[in-house]
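ENTRY TYPE: paired fold submission
RECORD: A
CONTENT: sequence, then structure tokens
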Amino acid sequence: MHLLHKCILQEIAFPKSIIHVKDICIALALAVVLTLASGITGFAFQTMDHWCHNAKFQDLFQNNWPLRFPANRPVMAYYFGYYLVPAAISRLAGDISPVAILIWTSLGIALGLLWICTSLDRKWWAALLVLCVGDFPRIFKGVASHGSIQLYKYEEIGVEHWSNIENLFWAPNQFIPSLMLGGMLFHMIRHRLDYALLCLPTALALWWAAFPALIAGLVTALLLVFQWIRWGITVRRLFQQVLLPSLAAVPVLLLFQSHPHAPQNGLIWEFRGDMDNLLREYLVNTVTDTSLFVFAYLISRRAGLPTIPAVPFWTLICITLLFPLIRVGKVNDMLLRGMMPVLILIGCCLLYPLASQPLPKTLTILRGNTNCIIIMLALVLPAAVGIGRFYRAARLNRITALWGSPNAEFEAIPYDAYPSLYETLRQRWSQQEADQYLGKPDSFYEKYIAPPPAKDP
């Protein structure tokens, strides 16, 4: 992040005053609220994935690094970037430190929120709505279910994407880099800067979240190609701005390559025998949301509002349409997590036209354009899903548990519920889930980067 900031200051005299103290305070306050509500500290309701998050903190706290499990096996092949700093502080403190987890998580979320907010002309209402983009189909399905209409049957390997605010409650470790990468890339798109500046942050994000970083890298690579076609590129610039920064990704890519088996992958219909149900699921989720995105973009252009260039937007739309058709991971993790930075970008693209205008002008535009009102309502409605999640966190947490109300029962997931992360995954999920973290004894990473300690004679 420091290198990126330095490059921007050197190349385009980026104004240092763009981030105000007021915005920093708002970002920090919102970040603390988001962190507490997410469940990551054990303060409020926790989804089942927190069994895994807590086990990772515990394993890093009590075992030598890099982690090897089961005992005496190769290095665990997983992205642990988010967990390392709180785990290191916990080791110094002698116990798992929820305060360290709270501070570390809040700082990451605050930084991501600042990238989004400053790119949207410091409009916090727009930045918060961006986090909810992607949940419109859930509203659509909720309305249908109240009318006893089943649009499709839910399957484990689905083709629906989740908003970033929904992913926060399941994968806060991937929420943070998605905010940062999405906010930075939209800043580059809006100000027509050199996309090569994103190579280093994207490579570093692989240590925190593989799928969001890979998809953000794909978007950046596509936009770089379009940029080079227009501006041209020299071998020297290619080496300095792209290849050299990308070397930061090599060690973690070698770590990912040390898996005994590649994650399950292929075309989605190869794993689903219910083609009619699959088609309906795709139409209800992907096509409905994508249609909303396209209509909102076109209406903004027709209304004469400032919009981003067409090439980045249509690139994002194509990715949104195509990615549900490819399965990567046990439950299509590439779609669930990889779409996170894409939805941040799309949300910024759609809300920027209104956020870039003074509030009185925005209200005038909405009053005089029925289509704009409809689209704005469609972008605001998904926030109801996020509000529901925060209501749940406000109702089920450590404070309400003290009241003793039967409707406010809450018990935080313990960090040491199981002997290891491996046992957590094996006992709460499956042997397959546990084995996907294992490494190979003959991998390059195991032999040359993190060889096992020598055995005593």
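RECORD: B
CONTENT: sequence, then structure tokens
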Amino acid sequence: MKQSILTATALGATLMGGLAAGHGALAQTAPATVNLIGEARHISVLNDQNLGERQWIVPAPSADANQFAFTMKGYVFGIKLLNVSYFGYEDTQDYAAYADIRTSGLGALLKKMDIWSVTRGRITGDGDLRPDFHVQQNTDKKNRRVEMVYDNDAAEVTVDIVPPLGSQGIPPATPDERFAAYDTITALLHMTRKGRQDAASLCSGRVPVFDSKQHYNLRLSPVGDARVKYLGDKQTAIHCHAYYEPISGFDPEDLPDAEEAGTPVDIYFNYYPDIDMHVPVRFAYRISSFKAIIKMTGLVMVTPDGEVITIDS
């Protein structure tokens, strides 16, 4: 195990570098200035390409917040082609999350892309997550910007996309469908919290998602415990199936065929009591001759009592 000086800057640099070599856990008192999401790769340029005059603000986490950040690497046909980072925090009232995904590209199977997104929201009295805004930036040739603003009093969401999409699908998602669903990175945070009160609920139910065009459900079902490799070791994890169920906002050519609709994504969760979350540690998808694996390579947690815990592979 390699020990690092856990300042806020060092934490962010360590995560984005894939975390230091060696496997183990380290805990120590965190300085009050630790702000994991503030160290995310694109937070500093969040407002550089705004579509209007509104400024998007992600406050620093409060002293009693759970903070988390993890990195994952993806393999297609055994070739490392994907890097994923996810940062966030939650307290009793608010949450914020950041994600980015970078791919190297593999011909027609996996396009080269670099996409990042940020969401800020609140936690309702019944424990649900309600976003206030979601911003997504694509950095390909089109450089598409997506901004979604939620009016939680009027139960409406406004979507601005520049350059605009050619279609909103047939049929497009209705205003009610858009508002009732989670944005993509809130959906993942919601999944980590599902088993908090009842572990059996982790792999059950449907998670509604609206990604600025397409509206779909992730239908979850339990499989059981499994031994899989993540964070450098083979460990026990909770195995769930997630089925992709398109609802609206799809062009005909984007709809899954029968095989795709019937093939789940395998998701493996591990429960981390320090932040009371079931964190996804591995994803797997196999269909026909296509095989993709995404596994966690590093995790940092900051607990409300100021403890920093790092685990890396």
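NOTES ON RECORD B: The longest strand covers residues 215-230. The helical segments are 8-16, 175-180, 184-193, 258-262.
STATUS: closed
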